[in-house]
Design a protein that fits this description.
This protein is an alpha+beta fold. It is built from eight helices and two strands; from the N terminus they run H-H-H-H-H-E-E-H-H-H.
Length: 182
Amino acid sequence: MLKHLLSFALILAGIGSLSVTSPVEFTRPQKVQDYIRKYRYLYQPLSAESNVPVPIILAVAGLESDWGQSELARFANNHFGLKVKSDWDGQTYCKQTVEFWEYQSYNARECFRKYPLIRESYSDFGQFITTRPYYRSLFTGLPSWNHRVWAETLQACGYATDPEYAEKLLRLIWRYRLYEIQ
């Protein structure tokens, strides 16, 4: 410890040298960059209309659609993993998926909403979480900058069965610096 204090004192006095490494330039993977650029015309208006922060929209869409490359995204234009409920009267796309019950995963065949256009997936996601009573707590003054609270509240409201869902969203937000995108 004394050695480190002495080195620090010498640097302050201008006697020692400070090794400064250049910062590593940050780049997102190509598929993430492409997704962000390609769907800006959808996520920006959705955020403005729904008050859901852009990083949350992008993290959910990125996770659920593998940045537009998942089977569900390619064959059903579903970028948010919305499943068919009793009130859905549109097209469906059924596939094998992993679900969770009491922290145990299991394989299941589930039916998801299918959209003619990706635009409809974005619109439906906004309507889905802003009109269902169990998502009300998302819109009770959560600060838009607090991505942890948004992700945890979305999970607590039952958006996904995965007990690690909030953490997965947060990892995407921080890994790909989605918090920089507006």
